[in-house]
C-alpha cells in the first residue's frame, strides 16, 4: 500500500461525506416518521390500516434497496416523476427505513407488559394519553438497540447511492479508481471513514441505551 | 339508596371456556367484601369485569348508579361509551397482583400522573396529594425512588396510594399480596385494614383467610364461575354450609391454621393506634427489619 | 404512457438467468458465511484473549463498513491478485460480510443455552468438544433459526449489490434490459416481484423450520 496515495485520497473522498451524512439524516427523519405511522396503523383497531401496514412492510422489506433506488431513479421518470439523483436516493432510503423501523417500533410497543395499559385504563387515562406518557417511553428502551442497528445499516447503505450517481464518498472513491488506477489505497480510506462513522453511531447507541435504562 | 356496586347475571367466556356462569351480588357503601375461591375459579375475572378491564359476555354491571354494561333482550351486550367508562373508572380504584407501577417514573410521579391528566389537578396540588398519600402508607421518604428500587411490599403500597389519589368510591384489590414475599405481605394488609376502618368500600380477592376473617364484612366463595356461598365473614369462614366451601377451607387452612379470633401466621397487625388517620402506622415503618435495605 | 407487460414475457429467459446467478451468489456466500461465522463465534468464546479479540475485531470491521466497500476490496484487490472471476470475488466478499453477522447470531444462540447443560455434561465427564457438539449446539439451533433466517433474507437481497462489480445477476440484467428496451417500470417491477417471491419463500421456510425445531412438550 502506497501511503502517499492514501493521504492524497483522503480529501478527495472526504468531499463526499456531506452528501453521505445528509442522505442518512434525511432518510432517518422521514423514514422514522413513516415508521411510527406504520407501527400505529399495525396496532390500530382498523383492519384496513393493519393490512396496509403489513403489506407495506412485506413489500419494502422483500425488495432489495438497490431495486428501490433504481426504480426511483430509472422508472419513475417514465411516468413524469423526475427526481434528482439525490432525491431519488432519499426516496428509496426513506421507504426502506420506514419499513424496517416500523417493525422495531411495533415490537417495542408490544413488549411493554399489558399490565401497564391496564393500570392506566383503571386510572381513567385516555388511550392517547397513556400511549404517549406510559407505553411509548417504556417501549423506547426496548427500541434503542435495534433502532440504532438499523440506522447503522442505513448509513452503510447510503454507499449504494453511487449506483444512481449521487456524488457521495463511494462515487468519489470510484472516480479515483478510474483516474489513477489505484484501488487498495482509496478503498482503505473509504473503509476507515465508514468504520469511524458507524463506530460513532455505535457508541452513541450505547450512551442512549444507558441514559434511558430504568433506575434500579 | 342503591348499592354502590350492583352485578347481575354476570357471565364471561374466553372462547369456548366459560369462566363466569352468572354471578349476582351487590356491594353497599362502606362494605368490605372478600372474594375467596380456588385458583381458576373466576374471582379475578369477576373483579376485572367491574371496571371493564374484561368485557363481560353477559349480564349487567352498575357502579354508583351508572351502567357499565347491560345485556339487551336479544342477548347482545351494550357497553357504556368510552368517555363514560373513563368517568366510571375514576370512581373505581384498582390494585393489581403484580403492582403494574410505571417503572420509568418515580413513586411520586406514579401517583400524580392520573390526577393531573384525568382530574386536571395542578402540579402543586397533585404533588401535595401524593406526598400525603405516600406518608399515609408509610413511604413518605420514598417519593423520589423508582419502582425497581423498592421492595415488593413497598411497590404495592405505592400502587395503593396511586389508586387512592383518584379519590375513588370503591377499591378493587386483586390478590395484592400474592406476588410479594410472605414477610412483606403484612405491611400491605395493614394499609388495607386501615383503609377499611376509614370506611372505604372494598372488594378484595384474596388468599389471606385471616385478613378476610378480621377485616371483611362479608365473604363470597366462588368456584367454577358461580358464587357457591356467601355471608358474614365469620359464618362462612368458621362454619361453612356448602361442602365445596368446607373442602376449600380445609385445604387452605391446613397450611395457615385459623383460630376463632382470626389471628394467623400472616399477621394483620395489632389493634393499636387506630385513632390516627394514617393508613400505616408505625408497626412496620418503625421496625427496620420490615423495610429491606435499599437497592 | 402505456405499460407494455409483454416486455417482461419477452425478457423472461434473461431474467431467469439473472435469478440463477443471484441464487448461486446467495447459496455459496451463505455457506461460506455460515462456516466462517461458526468459527468466529467459537473464537469469540475461546479461553485465549488474543483469539477473542481477533474475532471481535473482524466482526467490528466487517459490520462497520458497507458491503459495497467489501466487494470493492474482494474484486479490485483480492480478486485481481488471485485472478478470480467477478462471481468468485462476489461470493468471497458477500460471504466474508455475512460471516460477521452469522457469528453474532450463532454466539447469541449458544449463550442462550442454560449453563446448567454444560455443568451437567461436565459432571458426566464429557469433553468440551463433545458436549458442545452433542448437547449445546443442537439446543441452540432452536434459538438461532429465527435470527439466522431473517439475516439470510438480508443476504439474499444484498446480493443485488454485486451489480457494482459487474456481475450480471438479477438486478444487473434488469438494469441492462431496461436500458435496451426503455421499459424500466415493467422490468424493475418484475425484478421486485421475483425478489419478493424469493424472500417470501425464505419466510415460509423459516416458519417450517421453527415449527420443526420447536421443543416437544
Could you please describe the fold and organization of this structure?
The complex is a heterotrimer of chains A (216), B (295) and C (217). Chain A has helices spanning 3-14, 17-43, 47-62, 65-75, 85-111, 114-122, 127-157, 169-180, 184-211. Chain A contains 9 helices and no strands. Chain A has 216 residues and is mainly α. Helices cover 34% and strands 23% of the residues of chain B. Chain B has 10 helices and 11 strands. In chain B, the strands form 2 sheets. In chain B, strands 7-8-9-3-10-11 form a 6-stranded mixed beta sheet, with helices on both faces. The longest helix of chain B is centred in the middle third of the chain and has 16 residues, at 182-197. In chain C, 82% of the residues lie in helices and 0% in strands.
Strand count, sense and closure of the main sheet of chain A?
none
Which shape of chain A, going by the Cα principal axes? flat
Amount of helix of chain A: over 70%
* Percent in strands of chain A: under 5%
Largest sheet of chain B: 6 strands, mixed
Mean pLDDT of chain A: 92
- In terms of DSSP E residues, the strand content of chain B is 15-25%
Mean pLDDT, all residues of chain B = 86
Judging from the principal axes of the Cα atoms, what is the shape of chain B?
Answer: globular
- Strand arrangement, major sheet of chain B: 7-8-9-3-10-11
State the order of secondary-structure elements of chain B, H for helix, E for strand: EEEHEEEHEHHHEHEHEEHHH
Tell me the Rg of chain B in angstroms.
19 Å
**How far is the N terminus from the C terminus of chain B?**
49 Å
What Rg of chain A, in angstroms, do the CA atoms define? 21 Å
Poorly predicted spans of chain B: 260-276, 282-295
Instruction: Work out the largest interface and the residue count of each chain.
Output: A-C, 35 and 37 residues
Compact summary:
The complex is a heterotrimer of chains A (216), B (295) and C (217). Chain A has helices at 3-14, 17-43, 47-62, 65-75, 85-111, 114-122, 127-157, 169-180, 184-211.
